Queue: 2 jobs
Job 1
Amino acid sequence: MALLSHGLTILGHGNPVQESSIVELKTIKEEIPFRAKRIQWGKHYPQVYFSQTQHLFVATHHQGLFHTVTKGRICDAGNVALTVGTKLGKLHDALKTIQEMVIETGLEGRLSLVSRNGELEAVERKDRSSCLPEDLLLRFFSREDVVN
């Protein structure tokens, strides 16, 4: 069990499960009760994309009373997957590039993301001090690396 500085407790229990057994569960409130619902993939696709969860269950309630659970799979997203997925793919590529730059600069490197004329740039800072609190750095590095 690990207690993090922001009060979140992580319990290391359970057994590994197949990814095909994992579902993302969303709840939504509806104003007009008991209407048949289809999953609005435009709202939910980004979260499912990043979690890489194949199954989405959307539980619908009216005034706190749950009445419908709609089940879907990410492959059901159709055109939303094409349009939103393309944009998210570009974000994925940008994050991958940033990750590679961070790895290349190593423990001593200090990068900042800066917007110049609407373009995102990664620039190396001359100041070697970290902008992150120590408890966040310790998630990625040993105490010896953070202190030195």
Job 2
Amino acid sequence: MIGAIAGDIIGSVYEHHRIKTGDFLLFHPQCTFTDDTVLTVAVADAILTGRPYQESIREIGRRYPGAGYGASFIGWLFSDHPQSYNSWGNGSAMRVSPVGFAFRTEDKVLAEAKKTAVITHNHSEGIKGAQATALALFLARSGHGKQEIRKQITRRFGYNLERTVEDIRPTYSFDISCQRTVPEAIIAFLDSESYEDAVRNAISLGGDSDTLACITGGIAEKIHRLKKPSLRHKFPCSFRHPVCSGIVLQYTKMASGLMNIFLRRKTTLNLLIIGIAIWSFDTFVHIIAYKETLLDALFLKVSGHDLYLRLAILIASCLLYLVLMTNRVIEDKESQIENILNNVIPVCITNKDYEIIMANDSYWSIWGRAENKSLKCYEHRPGESCHTENCALARVLSGAKEFVAESKKEYADETHYFIVTARPFLDSKNKLAGIIESFQDITERRKLEDEKGNLISQLQASLEKVKLLSGFIPICASCKKIRDDKGYWSQIETYIRDHSEAEFSHGICPDCARKLYPDLDKTFPKKENR
């Protein structure tokens, strides 16, 4: 599933700036998650919680109204009585990857893929696109090779997968249909040598880049795998947004359950080995010191004192082993949590005395790391709301469950804007100890909004200058003067000039010149009779 999300993020920049080459910056500074990621996470959440797909998609989708949904989907998302709208768009395929991961048989995968699609995309092509994507991912996950995947998808769904990326790229264009997205995305995977190569193939087609890369990336992840050192540490902040990181971490619990069983068995085996080793060591001492036979030293002539001693040593060793194992697990968990916290959006915790007591690396990289332990938030991050009723800490202390405000910060030679969300921070006794604040960078969104506002202003100014002449205009049949709304008669050029942006330059035509200046008539060329 991470492969699908990563593909969406990588392709997000190139959806509206399409390219026809695989040679591009993999993680552009402006790349972000889109509706593909939000809805993929929503499907995963439905599988994990057992909720209906429609309920989960509508709940999570509404949290991110600006994720880039289509017009029909937005209407469905915010409708009080949502109904399927017979869509054949690729939205059904872009969100289905968790189904290919979660279920164990082809029939179940196909059935669940259809369920995820029909809530909106109940057209036969919309359903087919979702099923083909989920099945391709399931087959890849089950160990089938590329040729087997090509064969089965072609047989079941009739897609032409005999083409190559080089065949498709020259004539392919932006297309949101399943029938012109899913086959091309699968071919991008089939023509690849690695996960990165697959995503580059998909984006290089020059189509709906984020959705193509999302579908391709989900399938490619199971064949090529995502190498942690080479790709995952490069994911931009948008991938580490809570909507992604939270649900993706939940999704891994399905696999961690099996791992827990393995660890329990491994611990039991290690304790058994410790017991056998202690008993064998004591037996060896008896054989050397007391000249006993192996059988006597093991069982027959073991005194009560020796038995108690062996048991005491065994229990102490087992307890020590368990303590060491527990500490190791705790250290691993702490390391994982620290790694997660340092790679999500900027987060800091402030106590009731306005002191920042904890923050992650993302926060320090923007506002600078503290040099002393007692750091006041209003000194470290001053703003207009400090010491006012709009202070986030003051709002939470007064009973607010959540406080959202906008903030800005000058760094990296430009002004960055943030949405700051503050929530109560509770201590071990479940009492309010301060606030935890998260900072979502919305600089690019603000720039786009400003550009949009400027464009609207320019268009309005242009429209104000435009004057149109329409309807009936009273004109004299003889002198050609025009009567205006006030009843005055004006020259035709004056009327047009006053009611439009047109300007006149005066001259004299040959016919009028002959009439007004007959003496000069001989200077004008005569027309031949035809």
